[in-house]
């Protein structure tokens, strides 16, 4: 005599297979959402870093005789209006690493802007092969939460030989 239908073992096995498949789908969806969030955040950080680089590229180069930037000059440079103030790139260099936060920008965390004559980032500024030691070249690095977000070398065409 043949019984039609499924045995309890077959039902338990099928339920187990469905549970494993459902967990894989949920895990994939969570990973996908997390990756999308990380990508969105990375895109926002990169865009903000590029905006900071563009602002710094818009200010005058200045001269090595410029003193360090003041707090009000830094504030004016890194706020969200179109006024850049009286700061120069050399004033930023003399100030040292400018560290700040920008609440309400979609990019929480600590920003640092470093202007240096260490063009290759090796910790010294005396590598002639890298073009270091010239008053008309400076490296600008924008760092977000300890990670390099944007970097550019600024050349002063007015002061170059």
Structural account:
The chain is of the alpha+beta class and 161 residues long. The protein has one domain (33-155). It has helices at 8-58, 71-78, 89-95; strands at 98-101, 110-116, 137-144, 147-155. It has a four-stranded antiparallel sheet. A hairpin with an 8-residue loop joins strand 1 (98-101) and strand 2.
Cα separation of the termini? 102 Å
- Sequence of strands across the biggest β-sheet: 1-2-3-4
Number of domains: 1
Cα Rg: 27 Å
Unreliable spans? none
Instruction: Describe the global form.
Output: elongated
Number of strands: 4
| Mean pLDDT reading | 86
**Number of DSSP helical runs:** 3
Order of helices and strands: HHHEEEE
Helix content: 40-55%
User: Into which percentage range does the β-strand content fall?
Assistant: 15-25%
Characterize the largest beta sheet: strand count, sense, and whether it forms a barrel.
4 strands, antiparallel
A few lines on this structure:
By secondary structure, this protein is an alpha+beta fold. The chain contains three helices and four strands, in the order αααββββ. The protein has helices spanning 8-58, 71-78, 89-95, and strands at residues 98-101, 110-116, 137-144, 147-155.
């Amino acid at each position: 005599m043949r019984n039609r239908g499924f045995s309890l073992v077959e039902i338990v096995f099928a339920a187990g297979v469905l549970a494993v498949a459902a967990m894989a789908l949920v895990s994939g969806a969570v990973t996908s959402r997390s990756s999308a969030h990380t990508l969105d955040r990375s895109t926002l950080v990169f865009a903000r870093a590029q905006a900071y680089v563009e602002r710094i590229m818009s200010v005058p180069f200045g001269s090595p005789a410029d003193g360090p930037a003041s707090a009000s000059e830094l504030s004016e440079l890194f706020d969200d209006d179109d006024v850049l103030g009286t700061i120069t790139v050399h004033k930023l260099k003399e100030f040292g690493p400018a560290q700040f936060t920008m609440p309400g920008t979609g990019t929480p965390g600590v920003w640092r802007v470093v202007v240096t004559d260490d063009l290759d980032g090796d910790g010294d500024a005396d590598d002639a092969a890298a073009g270091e030691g010239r008053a008309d070249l400076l490296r600008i690095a924008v760092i977000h939460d300890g990670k390099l977000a944007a970097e550019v070398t600024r050349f002063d065409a007015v002061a170059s030989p």
